[in-house]
Amino acid sequence: MTRTAPDSCPGVLRLHQAADGPLARIRVPGGRLTPEQVLALAAAASELGDGAIELTSRGNLQLRQVRDAAELTARATAAGLLPSRTHERVRNIVASPLSGRVGGLADVRGLVGALDARLCAEARLAELPGRVLFTLDDGRGDVSALDGDIGVHAVGPDEFALLLAGADTGVRVAGSEAVDIVLAASASFLEVSSGQWRLHEIADGPARIVESLGLAPGAERVEILPVQDVPIGWLNQDDGLVALGAGVRLGALDARVAEFVAAIERPVIVTPWRSLVIADLDEWAAEQVVRVLAPMGLIFDAASPWLHVSACAGQPGCAKSLTDVRADVTAAVESGRVLAEGASTDTAHEQAVPAEEVRVAGRQHWSGCDRRCGRPRGEVTDVVATPDGYRVD
């Protein structure tokens, strides 16, 4: 199998040379972190990076301006965040963040660890592109809507649909077979690929994988619809405890705030929507967490305008960006120019306008150039920088 360009997805062992310095990406399968891992990441961000932990759209983490790559590797290994040096960049596994705690048809938490361990144990699967995404959905449709390459979607307590390129194939398997089928489809991806990074780029890729595995589609297809609601605020768990969904402004978690999160000593889940879930709290503890962390910048209000906006890295992190996008979007939010869904705006969409005149309603993504990096899935208004200002598409 040959590719026209090398796989440049960054990791811990191979950093990306961003405009503001080396960038490391740490895979976090299922977004699951222990308090000890959160504390280790906070220390690495403040002592080796720019003081922030970036949350990505795949529930992974990034550190910018890394000053000592070898030390970061040692710390990630010690914290259990780098279990495989050969497979680190293919461990892109997202799972329903609330699974096993709030709703859902099945508990997929056990599938996360099993898939990660077996993925790392199969030598050939290290050849998968670093852009391949695995999805484990408990039936609510949240991560299946992320257009993953290979995944399973619960249709019952112990029955899963095989999803390929984000769509139901009609194949059904028991929970005990879910990891087997995902791994088999991954190996088949390598067989049918002629250099493509993602399964949807391969002509008839899903059908060819189903055929190569000798599977028999037969079930009525599940329609995968975009999910707009991010789990934010007070979430009552099925066991009587409480989970807190916390938004993170522009996906950048300050290391000091991360230290406070670690001090709660409860499981933390990084979501693909650049937010956190702090789980397994009693009511008194949950109240104290909100009281302390809301003033520090975590967002527990589902109506916050910060939850409507996302942005690329912008200047100075990206050499291709035309402006400091994050400063511009921050000014827009703080001045009230990020409006609620359905609000009317007088912004001219046909021509570029200065940053201070941009007024946009609903979900929006601000980009420093036409590449629109980091744009979330679903219906999103694009606010794109041009040499003459911002264009609203």
Residues in β-strands, percent: 15-25%
Distance between the termini: 38 Å
Instruction: Please give the order of strands in the largest beta sheet.
Output: 1-2-5-4-13
Structural class: alpha+beta
Low-pLDDT sequence parts:
none
Number of helices: 8
**DSSP summary, beta strand count:** 21
Give the overall shape: globular
What is the helix fraction of residues, given as a range?
10-25%
Write the H/E string, N to C.
EEEHEEHEHEEEEHHEEEHEEHEHEEEEE
Task: From the alpha carbons, calculate the radius of gyration and give it in angstroms.
Answer: 21 Å
Largest sheet: 5 strands, antiparallel
Mean pLDDT: 94
Q: How would you describe this protein?
A:
Helix 1 runs antiparallel to helix 2 and helix 4 (178-192) packs across helix 5 (205-212). The chain is globular. The mean pLDDT is 94. The strands form five sheets. Strands 1-2-5-4-13 form a five-stranded antiparallel beta sheet. The chain has a five-stranded antiparallel beta sheet with strand order 3-14-15-12-11. By secondary structure, the chain is of the alpha+beta class. Helix content is 23%, strand content 23%. The chain has eight helices and 21 strands.
